[in-house]
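Form 7-S
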Amino acid sequence: MTRPLPSLLLVLLALLCATAPLGARETNIAASLVAETATPAAGSTVTLAIRMVPKSGWHGYWANPGDAGRPPSVDWNLPEGATAGPMRFPVPERLLLSGLMNYTYERDYAKLVDLTVPAKLAPGTRLPIRGDLEWLACTDKVCVPERGEIATELVVGNGAVAPADRARFDGWRAALPKPLGSPARFAAADGRLRLAVPYPASAAGEGAYFFPLTERALDYAAPQRVGREGDLLLIDVPAGMDAAGLREVSGVLQVDGRGLELRATPGPVPAVSEGGDLWAILLSLGGALLGGLLLNVMPCVFPILSLKALSLARAGETERGARTEALAYTGGVLLTVLGLGGLLLALRATGSAAGWAFQLQDPRVILALLLLTNAIALNLAGLFELPGFARGDALARRGGAAGAFWTGALAAFVATPCTGPFMGAALGAALLLPAGAAMAIFAGLGLGLALPFLLLGFVPALRRRLPKPGPWMNKLRRVLSVPMFLTALGLAWVLGRQAGVDAMTLGLSAVLTAGLALWWVGARQAVGGRALLPAGASAAA
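Output:
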């Protein structure tokens, strides 16, 4: 399945170019046909190489492209009696874009084909070899279907191979996966696909990764757990949609810098030890904890935290009361953040995660993000206020564990729109990691967000040293509106690239309309008027 192109113009150009011969146009991945010997013997087999040379920033696809893309195909036009075998691909590279795993080549590569020359041909007989090749050339933003004729001419001879040609083809052969030579096993159960691959215990087993040729056998973008048990290399990965009914799983195992081609049949597979997973979860938890701590300096979180902490100090809470409120605040934060994490995992389970990149390429989504980013920027600039801040003040002044709990929930909620880098990282992890690791990341983020107030509740000296909120917070808030406005400008540019100048003009008109409506909201707020109805009108506009 190919990714959508950003505009109708590019689609039309791609279709027009796709009908042109290879030599009549410039392609983003140059293709050519090379024979190991130009004089093969009658009745022999000669190796052909379909050489692909991508431009900088472009890539082609493996036999199984992964979550997106399309594999190349060739329609041969051969002399009578000649036959061409299947294309043999070198070990691919992994390219993860917006949660989608692509199996690609971003460098020069060659696909090898064995051509059988007809027997009983007289020396000097010419053998024109032609092929209609189709492939997909992509960057991280756009894909272009390309096609062209590849051709070479052979002459029946003695089959001699020049040393330079042999060396070049030996290099291409070295990049191909080698047959494993031993039977492998697989087991699909409980939403997981496990592989047991014979591999010597004395070998390092570094960088093990399984590239599946069997489609929909596993979740391409999910991390693969790797373990060892004697002379078995074990791989555990979330299963794909068709895993339950498979009788064979084929693919390429990349390990210790080489590729091994294998076919696995159903059989017993030992469980992979989770020691490495626990270590990865702990690292993710530590990184998320730091990210949550940094959220507390954001102007949408610090006022709520400060007001609640100062209310503790002014009220003269007992040690027990302060600890109770700190724990309740932490509970509110954690439940809110974990709720968001659970929602993301539920979306992933229903397949929404797999379509995330395509959603981002939809101009309507870009328009929605443009309007949202501009509204946040206007809010930070002080044009209008979100009701959540005022309610945060009321909740912060409310005493007891209930007030602390809802203040924590509010702090986590209002942190969401102003935590792009941190929530973006958490979202990416939730889409890629197993459920346990993903929830650990969200728990770490929530714990980091709650940690300052948790410490204030348990360390009285910290409560006395907390700086009081002041005008400097408003100045910082105004400064933070600048990068948000720049983000909105960038989104407008993306909208124009995707759907044209007319769409960008429409988007900017919507931004202007929403800005005027929000200015009206801010004007009503300044004189103490209710902003609920104007806010609804702004959303409708």
